[in-house]
Structure formats: C-alpha cells, structure tokens
Fold this sequence. Notes:
- The complex is a heterodimer of chains A (about 375) and B (about 450).
- Chain A is an alpha+beta fold and about 375 residues long.
- Chain A has helices at about 120-140, 145-165, 225-230, 240-245, 280-285, 290-295, 305-320, and strands at about 50, 55, 70-75, 75-80, 90-100, 105-115, 180-190, 195-200, 205-210, 220, 255, 265-270, 275-280, 325-330.
- Chain A has a domain at about 75-330: Phosphatase 2c, domain 1, CATH 3.60.40.10.
- Helices cover about 20% and strands about 20% of the residues of chain A.
- Chain A is globular, with a radius of gyration of 24 Å.
- Chain B has 13 helices and 20 strands.
- In chain B, helix 3 (about 75-90) packs parallel to helix 8.
Amino acid sequence: MPQQTECPTCAEPLGPQDAFCGACGTALTGPPTLRDLPVVPSCPNCGSTELADGWCQGCGHAQPRARDHQEREVTGVAAVSDRGLRHHRNEDAFGVATAEAPDGTPAVVAVVCDGVSSSARPDEASATAVTAATDSLLAALQAGRDPGQAMREAIGAANRAVTALAHDGTPAEPGRHNNAPACTYVSAVSAAGLVTIGWVGDTRAYWIPDDRESAEPYRLTEDDSWAARMVAARLMDEAEAYADPRAHAITGWLGADAEDLDPHTVSFTPHVPGVLLICTDGLWNYAEAATDLAFFVRADARTEPLAAARALVGFAVERGGHDNITVAVLPIDPPVAAAAHDATLLDVPLPRAAEEDATVPLRRAAEPAAN
Amino acid sequence: MASLSKPGTPRFDVDVFQNEYLAQGSREVNAIVTVTATGGGTSGGRPLGAAAGTDAAVVLVIDCSGSMEHPNTKMRHAREATAAAIDTLRDGVAFAVVAGTHEAVDVFPGNGRLAVVDQYTRGHAKEALRRLKPSGGTAIGTWISKARQLFDSRPQASIRHAVLLTDGRNEHEKPADLQRALDAATGAFTADCRGVGTDWDVAELRKISSALLGTVDIVAEPSGLAEAFRAMMADAMDKQVADVALRVWTPANAQVKFVKQVAPAVEDLTARRAAAGPRAGDYPTGSWGDESRDYHVCVEVPAAAVGNEMLAARVSLVLPQPDGTAEVLGQGLVRAVWTDDLASSTRINSQVAHYTGQAELAESIRDGMEAHRAGDLDRATAKLGAAVRLAHAGGNEGTLKLLQKVVDVVDAREGTVRFRKNVSEADSMTLETRSTKTVRVKK
C-alpha cells in the first residue's frame, strides 16, 4: 500500500507513523482505498495494464469499446444498448433527442436500429441510419412538420444514408458477407400527447401502461419478417410460423439491397399514463408478447426511464444475451385535456383480425402468444 | 491495411486475408498476409543505387571445377553470362568475381576487396574473366566464405547480394563444412543460386539459396546462362531496402504453428525465428524492391468463450536499427472472434485454402520425385497424381506443364497420372527445382 499523506475519510494531513487518523479516528491499516490506487486502465480478461490500440498486449483480448455498452438520458426519454454475451461487437445503435416546434411545443425523439449481421459493416449501417434519421426528425419537427410526415422523411433519409454506404468505395472484404450494409429501423416521436411510430424490419415498439390491470400492453409494430408474412397471408398459424427456422428472416430493411422500401408508420394518443418502448430483437426474443414483456418493465418506468431501460437490458443479458440488446423508454404522461387528435385504432381496441386490407398493420398483442 | 514508412524508403502495405470467426473451442487461426513494397526503384523512377551511390554490393561466384569443360561450351557461356551480369550492374555498385573450385579465388579485383563499377572496372573485370579456367573440384563452402569476406570489406553496403553458379555436387568438402560456411553467411548477404546442366543436386542448392534468402533455378542448357544472369542482376539492382524482417507478435499462451512465405514461392520460415522482445519473433525476409510477397501465418491461441474477440497476431515488417530498436514499415492484424454462427465459423478463406493447396503441391512434387529416385513407383505416381490435381485446382498452369513432362495426365481433376517412359533428367530436375513456385489466387 502506498504511503498515505492524508486521511482517506476527512483529508486530515497524516504523519508517516500514524495508524489512525487523529481527526476522525479512521483506521489507516485497512485495505487500500480508491484514493491509494492509481487509476490505470487494465485488461478485463487478464488484468494486464499493457494496452495498445484497443488490444491487450498480454493476452491479446479486445478491450471494451465505446459501443459495447451505452446509456443516454435526456428529458422525456432514456435508452440503453449492450453488446450482450454472444456477439463480439455491438451492431445496434440508438439516438435520443428533444426538439421544439415553431409554436413552442416540445417533442421527444428516439431512434433504434439493428445492423443486419449477414450484411457488410452492419455496425456502420445502424450508426449511420440513427444519425441520419435523428437529424432528419429534428429538422422536420423544428420546421413545424406533422410527426407522421417527419417520420416518413426520416426513414427515407436513413435509407439513403445506409444505401450510400454501399457506394462509398470501401472494398468488399473477400470471404465475407458481401451483401450491402443494411439495418432495421424503429423510431418514436412523442409530441403534444401524440405518439408516432415508424419502422422497417423487426425492431419493435410496445405500449406499456402503468396500470396493467385496467389497460392492456400492446405491441405497436408488425414485423417485416417471414413468420409475420406467413401469418398475414394465412399460410400458417402463428405457432407454426414462429417455430419455423425461417421465422426470423426479415423481409424489410434499410440499405442498397432493399427493394420496394415499405416504411410503416402509426400514430396514437395514449389516454392513460405509461411508457413507450422501442427495442431490438435482442430484447423481445426473450419476451415476445407485450403482456410478457410488460412483466419485466419496472412499475416506476415512467418516472425512472433509465432504470427501466437498464433493467430490461439486464433481463435480456441474464436470459443469455444471445444478441445485441437496445431499448429506449419514453415516459408518456397524457395531459388532462387530451390533445385534439382523431381517435386511432388503439384508442378503440377492436379486434382487427377480420380486416385484411388494414393499411396500418396493428395486432392485438394479447392474442395467443407466439412460440 | 497499414503503412508506416517514411518518404525515401519504400512504402510497405500489409493486407490480411482470413476468416477470423472460430467455433466454440477452436484454437487455430490462419491468415494470409500480403506485403507489397512500392515507392522506389522501378515505380518511383529513382533507382536506389543512383541515390545511395555505393550502397549496393554484388559478388559473382562462378564454378570453375573441371567438369565445367564437359562440354566446353559450359565455361564459355558462364564467362559470357558473367560479362552480361557485369554489364547489368549500375555505376557505383561494388562488385567482385570469384572463381570457385575446391578453393575460392577472387579473380577480380583480386585484392580481397570489392571494386566499384565504372566504365574502366567493367572492362578490366571482363578481361579478368579469361582467368576463369576449369580445373579442380567443388567445395561450395569455401566459395561462400570467400564471398562473405569480400562483403565484409565493405560494411557500408546495405544491399549485399551474391550470385552462385555451379554445375556439380559439393564433393570436395564435408557437408558440415558447407553448413558452417552457411551459418556464418546467413544474414551477412543474400544469394541466388543457379545449377547449370543436370549433374548438381537440387536439395543441396535449395538449402543454400534458402539459407541466404534467394532463389534457386535450373539452367539446363548453358546457352541460357546469359539471360538468367541478366535477369538476376536486374532483380538485384531493383532492391532498395535490405534486412527486412517479418515480426510476428502473439498473445500470452499462444503458439506460432508456422510462418511460411507462400508467394512467389513456398519457403518455410518457421525455424528461422529470432526472439524480438516479449511474445514476438522476427523472421528474415531479405531485401525488397518493388514487389509483393504473401505469407501464411498459423497461430494457435488459447480458446475463449463465444462473443470474445482476440488479437491472434500482430504482423509487421520491421527494419532493425543499429541501436537495437526496429523501424516499423507496415503492420497488419490477425484476429480471432468466437461465434456460435456456424455459417461464419465454417467458412474457409479462399486465400488460405488456395495457399494451403499450393504448399501441399510443392510437398507432393518433392515427395514424388524422392520416391521415384528411391524406386517406389507406386508412391511416386500417387504423389505426382496429387500434385497434378492440386496444380489443376489452384490454376498453377506453369507447374502443371512441368508435371506433364514427367507424367502422362489421364485426368487432371482427379489426379490420375502415369509415369512417362524416358523422362529426361533435365525435365525431372526442372520440375523439382520449380516445384515451390506458386501462383496467386484469382481475385
């Protein structure tokens, strides 16, 4: 233990022979305190302090990278992203921000993207999409555009940005995935009591009310996936479709390979307090149905969104952390006098199964659970 | 890709080709490391010799044993080839000519030192070639020692290159004498070896050229000597930087299984490792001009859990400095990533697969020719059959043509062959000598 020159508790100057602090009585022979130990980065695998350009010079292990675990909270939204346990890097990305419309109405924006692992540079694709979409959403909202319009523009901007990656001159690496960089997309805008969701692929949004007895949690998105298609086309029932090895193959994504980009948007006005979750499949794979997922959302999620996001990521890691995990939590506090907005499908919870031409593909999450 | 060189020295680009994904429990990491040197000599239009003046030294060692006069055209062509080599030397290069028999005599300049090329020394040297007279035996170790002494007389020369011509086996000294001379010469200079005719030993000459980081080839007809010498000298004049080492760092508890040069020819460097600091070793690569070489590095790392990523090797080109440090000219990283995605971990990198096949091709030819000499025709046929299959699969047309002079190919894809009757000694020695030559993978 290095020689202490001042008491670790009260900072009283110490003599070299002191066994206790003369001012506060703290024993000075105990285990070293943080103050004693120089803060030197060391390898989490072997403890070596010889690190060079992201690698341990002893055991060779990659050192933690900034994207491995990220947390952010701004007023009205918190998000957490984690590499998980089985992937060597985090190919998810997220962005959270706030904006103000010209009339002073505040808006909260969250974007979550998941790089498609069978494409080239999926980590770059997701980060690029998040940046492009966030910038586009903020600009549109600050210009006073309607959130639905802003959302469609943002998805277009994100798609162009990811598509451009395929043409930026980075040579294809031989023996690797040569599909153009690609990612899935989900984003939420919460402004003036109205929530607007946009998505492509299998990143999802869930509505989780505070009171889960009298109001039901909902899934707000319909995956662009093989299983969802099979069910929608009534070729298979849900259990059968999700049991198929192809179930999770996605049929929609952003990127140069995406044909007929079909961005989905939906808006609704929550009338009870709750939280909106947008997340990657690294989370929902462990609790697919909204009611199941709601079980792991802290009761105080609306007031402690960062804690709730951390808890959800922790839950997925505990379950095996097979994929990267990202979740953004947006507390929704409906104003007492609801904003002027037409009632949406979700406000009127009617079974929609019979309608085949639904342009807004909503599904009641309380229906028989998948798997 | 990484390149760290200063202006004035060639630029070394290092590219790594590998499948870094390993299945759970896997430990072996394979990578092809392509090193490309550019920026001086031929592409920059600034030949090193001209800029650095007397920085290069060349010693021409010519076999003058008695057998060189059978037929007598051999000695005449050897003299003409030496003259052609002297004509190819740039002004300012230091040089000497050594006559090799059971002893070694520097016939030019003859004072135990090197002369500097100019119009006068060129002429004097060519006149001195008349003193290349066949008589006596063959003790190649003494030739190599003489070359080393001559190079030692000019320590300022950084590029030190010898050309060694022989027509016979090392009959007049013990193998241990040759080995001692080679050990002393290793690292002191590089050498290209040529065997003229068919009475020399491929394995013996390859051993010399390998130790001295040069090439070995056959010149079956003495009339081909002049062209061969001109080409070797042109290559030597293109070299811009000497004593470059391939440095391989590996993590704790990892083991380098092998380091092989795989292009332009197969050369196993594994045993030539010299320690270079903690967990690093240097493998000699000799001198470089504007050229590209490929290396196959195979490392066994401690297994890690799925989701882990490790640096399996840091491969750099270094130029050792007199003060014991080393200038890093370029660097590439070999990674290991453990995954449970079978599609990723089972994929074999095409470059690794290609060069694994090319190395096996060289080995099959060597084994096949050895078996043939030992009279084991079945084994020889099987080995050369495998060689035909590998040459066909790897697109190595040159080697396939050489094989076809020794065996009749029934089915190249399957490797079905029959030994030809009356194979000429020249054809079988050509095949054996050039068996290590590889082709690059089609990209």
